[in-house]
Design goal:
72 residues
Length: 72
Amino acid sequence: MLGDLLYLLIIISLLLLFSVSLGLFIKRRTKNQSIKTESLRNIEEKLDRLIEVLEKKRTNIIQLTGALVVQQ
């Protein structure tokens, strides 16, 4: 009788431990995923700004070389 109760307590505690561990694992994964998503969004914004700057420089160089060709 006492052995059966002890066995039942162990099984219930293991199930509870499994449930809590699974919940914490899922919570941590979703948090890390949101952090990665935000980081990727920041990287994309920086790359967009860099592309804009490079395109402006390219346009300026083309305009300068065009002006030099016209002067010659």
